[in-house]
Amino acid sequence: MTADDGGTTRAGRATGDDGTGGTGQGARHAGHAGHPGVEEDIGEEGDPLALRLESLILGAERRYTPFQAARAAGVSMDLAARFWRAMGFADIGQAKALTEADVLALRRLAGLVEAGLLSEPMAVQVARSTGQTTARLADWQIDSFLEGLTEPQEGLSRAEITYPLVELLLPELEEFLIYVWRRQLAAATGRVVQAADDAEMVDRRLAVGFADLVGFTRLTRRLEEEELGELVEAFETTAADLVAAHGGRLIKTLGDEVLYAADDAGTAAEIGLRLIETLTNDETMPELRVGIAFGTVTTRMGDVFGTTVNLASRLTSIAPKDAVLVDGALAEELTRNGDAPKSEAEVAAAESAGAEQAPYRFALQPMWQRPVRGLGVVEPWLLTRREG
User: Fold this and answer.
1) Which of the 8 DSSP states describes residue 118?
2) CA geometry: angle at 239 spanning 234 and 240, to 5°?
3) Which residue blocks in 141-264 are alpha helix, DSSP H?
4) Across all residues in the chain, what is the average pLDDT?
5) Do 297 and 204 contact (CB within 8 A), yes or no?
6) What mean pLDDT do residues 164-179 have?
C-alpha cells in the first residue's frame, strides 16, 4: 500500500484511474524494512521457510494485492494506505502479499469510522499507536527471546528449529498479550474516569520523573558492546520493576534514561529515592540523577508532553550525583499532603511544644535559584528521606 502524508495515494498518480497502484517500482521496493516478508526483486515466491512462518503467524496465506484487499474490505485505497502506513509498514506496490486478516483489520477499522465510534484521524492514530507498540515488542521477542531458544543443534539449523518453536509458543504468547493488554486497559481507564473533570482527562496533573545514568557517554567508549547492552538492560529492568512496584507508570526508556509518571507527588518521590538507593548499592552501576516536577501534563499515545515534563528533564540535568531534585510545585504537594514538613524549624518548634505529629517520610531542602533554559528562573528542592 502507498500513500503520501496528505492521504492521497501515489498509486493512483502512478498508474492511472483504476487505483491499482504499484508499478514495477513498487514491487521492486517490497522488501524494505517494515514490510511483511516480500523479498526484494524475487517476486512473490520468497524464501519457502519465511513464507511458511509468515503463514503460521498470520493464520492465512498471501492472497491479495493492496488494491484487492481495499476493495474486499469495502474501503478506499486512500484510507487503506493510510492505515497500512500508520501501522508502520513500508509501501509494497501491488505485490500479492496481503491476507484475509489484513482485509478483516481494514474492515474493522473502517467500520468503527462508519459507525461514528471513531473519527478517521482517531482510527489512524489507533493504527499508529498499536503498530509502534507491537513493533517494539516483536523486535524484542525475536532479538532476545527466540534467538536464545533456537540454538543450532546437530543436523538442524536455527531456521529449521524456529518453525516448530513458533508453532508451540504462538498461541500461549497471544493469550498472554491479550491478558496484559486488558489489564493495562482496565488500569488506564480507571485512572482517567477518576479525573476531576473532562478537561483533566486529557490535560492531567501528574508527577513526572526522569532518572539518568551519570557519565553514560564515557561508558559507551569504555565498555564492550555486550557489556554496555547488559548494563542498559539491568538499569531498565531495575527501574521498570521499582516504578511498577510503587504505583508509578514507566512511560519510556531511552537507554541511559527512564521517564516515569505518578498520580501523586508522594509516589513519584518514593520512586525517585528508591531508584537512587537501589542503584547506589549496585557496584556495577554508575551514579544516578533524578529530577521530578509536578503539574499539568498532556498525554498522547502513551507519552507525556508539556512544560512539566521539560522541567523534570532540566532538573535531572542539574541534579547532584545520586540525588533527587524536585520543583516547587512537587515540594508544595508533599507538604500539603503531610509527606514532608515545610521546614525542619517547624518540626523542632512542634517537638519543643510537645505536639504530636504524624511521621514525615521526606525532607526538603531549598537549593540555589538558577536560570533554566527555556523555563526562566527556578528554585529546585533537594529531596531526601527523613531520618527519625
Assistant:
1) S
2) 100
3) 147-149, 158-193, 198-202, 216-222, 225-245
4) 80
5) yes
6) 88
